[in-house]
């Protein structure tokens, strides 16, 4: 299978980060606070690495537009925008959860934590779906500037 290196690497990081969040949630359910803290911090580092690779590729190489049939392009675009919103929301919640966790602001952290973890895992799952649609199920389209790749014109 001929898949591009950087998107494959960043998608692997998304998967790792999503799996770590699930493990971190299980750990806190078992009251293992220190392990929870370490695993959630590791999940955040993986997500940050994803962001660094993704953004550098966007700036240096550009984004790839959908290469599948025109008839389903609109569904891909709507799904991609949904994924981007989910990931952005997850990132904001992630920062707030980290801050409240490190500050020991537990009432706030307990409210934010489950929402953050759920959004994060769904952002990761939809991210993998975008990767599969873009590079595996269909051959990636043209690689161009970000705005063109997202909107498809
Ligand atoms: C993005 C990162 C994080 C996420 C998504 C997250 C998520 C969660 C979740 C889902 C819970 C369980 C809440 C409940 O069921 O009531 C929780 C509890 C907890 N978290 Fe985190 N967490 C994160 C980072 C951290 C960090 C960095 C620390 C510590 C420095 C931390 C410390 C705790 C503690 C002490 C609890 C137990 C609260 C209690 O039971 O009273 N968390 N977190």
Structure, explained:
- The protein has 153 residues and is mostly helical.
- The chain has one domain (5-151): Cytochrome c oxidase, subunit III, four-helix bundle (Four Helix Bundle (Hemerythrin (Met), subunit A), Up-down Bundle), CATH 1.20.120.80.
- Helix content is 80%, strand content 3%.
- It is built from five helices and two strands, in the order H-H-E-H-H-E-H.
- The chain has helices at 5-29, 33-60, 70-102, 106-136, 146-151, and strands at 63-64, 143-144.
- The two termini are 28 Å apart.
- The structure holds protoporphyrin IX containing FE.
How would you summarize the topology of this molecule?
Elements lengths: L4 H25 L3 H28 L2 E2 L5 H33 L3 H31 L6 E2 L1 H6 L2
Antiparallel strand pairs: 1-2
Helix pairs in contact: 1-2, 1-4, 2-3, 3-4
The site of protoporphyrin IX containing FE has 21 residues, from α1, α2, α3 and α4.
Short description:
With 153 residues, this protein is mostly helical. 80% of the residues lie in helices and 3% in strands.
Associated small molecules: protoporphyrin IX containing FE
What is the helix fraction of residues, given as a range? over 70%
**Arrangement of strands in the largest sheet:** 1-2
Give a short account of the largest sheet: 2 strands, antiparallel
Straight-line N-to-C gap: 28 Å
List the domain count as a whole number.
1
SSE run: HHEHHEH
CATH class: Mainly Alpha
| Shape category | elongated
Mean pLDDT: 92
CATH architecture: Up-down Bundle
According to DSSP, the number of beta strands is 2
Percent in strands: under 5%
The whole-angstrom Rg is 17 Å
Which blocks of ≥5 consecutive residues have pLDDT under 50? none
Task: Give the full name of the CATH homologous superfamily.
Answer: Cytochrome c oxidase, subunit III, four-helix bundle
CATH topology: Four Helix Bundle (Hemerythrin (Met), subunit A)
- SSE-based structural type: mainly alpha
How many separate helices? 5
